[in-house]
Amino acid sequence: MKAPKFFLCFGFLALLAISSGCRTSSPRETMVHSTPPPELLQQSYLFEIVRHLYRWQLEESEIDRIISSKEMVFWVGRFEPKLDPGDHSVLAEILLPQLAVRVKVKKADYKIEESDTVVQSRNFRITQVLRSQLPEALPRNYSVVRTDVKEMRDYLFRTRNQHDYADPVLVERLRVALRAQAAKEGNTNSPNGEQVIHLAPLSPVSNECWVFWESGRKLFHFASDIDLSNPAVWKQEALAAGIFDVDNQVVVSHEEAPGSNRFLTRYQVSRALFNCIVLGQRVVVPPRSPN
User: Fold this and answer.
1) What are the E-state strand segments in the chain?
2) Count of the separate structural domains present in the chain
3) How many Å apart are CA 55 and CA 49, to the nearest integer?
4) Which of 19, 35, 38, 141 sits at a 20 to 30 Å CA gap from 217?
5) Same domain, 56 and 153
6) Residue 180 φ/ψ, nearest 5 degrees
7) Residue span of the structural domain in which 275 resides
8) ∠ CA(113), CA(38), CA(73), 5° rounding?
């Protein structure tokens, strides 16, 4: 059986899925027919989902709309697709009817037979965010969670500057993956002199990482099916990295380059740069010593 492949998610704010060659069936083959795991119904987890959307997705008008309400409503349901033997991954989704947002999440739990490696996520991680028309009423077998908007607003305010950065081990792994991707794209030139990069904070509910290379004026994106800090990711193959040139790969709308995933919109870039530069960690990389 194939080991899972981990790859980048181009155009994250374009609402494309973070997916992989893991052993999970297509969403079209799934059905919701059981109650969701209790951990998905915890207020602390749902607040983290909103905090992620707050930083990467939601518009000011949407925040105002929620604040004007007394409660925030979540509809939570579990998918049970047909999985390969030994795959105990759990898939679910969280609907935010007040915002017409659908958040799909996954808790990976399977074994890579070739290396006898057990892949287990610590918690449910976001795999896809969609803005779409939602059911008018609570779907069958979904659970509803209602939270106090003032309490959620206070939490978002308290944690607006919370920074959870990659540790040195993960940073080194990302650096290796980035060089491998650059070489694959034919860019083997090593930068001269001191370099400055900015790392966006990591989210406890998402397996992606964004980095801005200041002098190179490039955005890098890393993503995986499982936790980026899990050694299993790196044992199988180097993590692929997406490279976006902010001078040449930015458009006003994706309609300018239909069908292409090599461009980010100005809105997407502004969000990424805010998270990298304003909320992120500034790292100075000294010049490489001559051999």
Assistant:
1) 32-34, 71-79, 90-96, 101-107, 109-112, 117-120, 125-131, 143-148, 195-199, 208-213, 218-223, 241-245, 250-251, 264-265, 281-285
2) 2
3) 10
4) 19
5) yes
6) -65, -40
7) 168-285
8) 120
Classified as helix, coil or strand, 214 is coil
User: Six-digit token pair at 210?
Assistant: 């964004």
Are 37 and 143 contacting, i.e. CB atoms less than 8 angstroms apart? no
Q: How far apart are CA 160 and CA 172, in angstroms?
A: 27
Q: Is residue 7 part of a domain?
A: no
Longest dimension (CA), the chain: 66
Give the residue from 74, 81, 72 showing the smallest Cα distance to 28.
81
DSSP 206: B
Q: How many helices (H) and strands (E) does the chain have?
A: 6, 15
Same domain, 154 and 172: no
**Which of 86, 125, 120 lies closest to 232 in space, CA to CA?**
120
> Residues 118, 168, 12, CA angle at the centre, nearest 5°?
70
For 10-28, how does the pLDDT look when each residue is reduced to its tens digit (9 = 90+)?
333 333 333 333 333 344 4
Look up residue 9 and give its two tokens.
Answer: 């998610």
pLDDT in tens, 37-74: 999 999 999 999 999 999 998 888 888 888 889 999 99
Which spans in 37-127 are helix H?
43-56, 60-67
Same domain for 17 and 134, yes or no, is: yes
Amino acid at residue number 178: L
Per the listing, tokens 């980048």 go with 8
pTM, two decimal places: 0.79
